[in-house]
Amino acid sequence: MKQRAPIVGIPACIKMLGNHAFHAAGAKYVDAVANAAGCTPLLLPALGERLDIARILELVDGILLTGSVSNVAPERYGKTLARAELKLDAERDATTFPLIAAALAAGLPLFGICRGFQELNVAMGGTLHQEVHAQPGLLDHREDKTADVDVQYGPAHTVRLAADGWLRQLLGGIDEMTVNSIHGQGIDRLGNGLVVEASAPDGLTEAIRVDGAKAFALAVQWHPEWKVEQNPQSMAMFRAFGRACAERAGISPAAVQQE
Predict the structure, then answer these.
(1) So what's the pLDDT on residue 2?
(2) How does strand 110-113 pair with strand 62-65?
(3) pTM above the 0.90 mark?
(4) Sign of the CA dihedral 144, 198, 257, 99?
């Protein structure tokens, strides 16, 4: 008898399509959860305090925090908006921040990507650079928006994995790996209780883990969901996340990921 797949909640962003607002999540994240993690994706509307988080945590076995064109509101880490052109999404912020706190307290597996990586850092009391490229000594980590999407998401720079780090161990003990780079913001001050798992050549933090978390609690600045099945390191991260979600659900991880 086929087992049910673990359920992964994916908080949505608010996207304007024409004159109407939609709750939306990128297909690449949904596909990666289904195909690489072996889980059933469940989109969570960006309802803020109207979302019954306690009920959501009863339904899901893990949370994936996706990337987005929007940025975390700087007021959440004690700063003001650097430029009016920087896009925000107050509804997503109001949804993900209490969700992160509740998920970690409940021991729910949590995987953050790009904006999700930044959300986790801020949720843990850290701060962000609103424009990494404007900081002395840091590189421009943005993609070329005029290039083809495969070029935008192509290899951009290496990251050095922390010695004796959890991520290095997961990825077979490798010292470094090459990642894509599609972000304007990045970590300034590391949040409380977070451990750096990988850094870019300019020293910018690129992967973090919640120290002492009850379950999988990892976030990365790059985009492992992009063509995940073509990248062994990306597959390893999503499979580890899927196994953690299966364990949370009381399901055999091997059986789930073989189906």
Answers:
(1) 63
(2) parallel
(3) yes
(4) negative
Among 214, 204, 201, residue whose Cα is nearest residue 184:
204
pLDDT of 23: 98
Catalytic position from the list 13, 39, 91, 114 = 114
- Catalytic residue selected from 129, 141, 223, 245: 223
Q: Give catalytic status of residue 114 as yes or no.
A: yes
d(CA 108, CA 247) in angstroms, rounded, equals 10
224, 235, 259 from 1: Cα distances, Å: 32, 26, 11
Query: What pLDDT digit, counting tens, does each position of 16-40 carry?
Result: 999 999 999 999 999 999 999 999 9
Contact (CB, 8 A) for 196 and 221:
no
Question: How many CA atoms are closer than 13 Å to the CA of 208, on its beta-carbon side?
Answer: 29
Concerning whether 20 is annotated as a catalytic residue, the answer is no
Residue in the structure block whose two tokens are 């050095």: 160
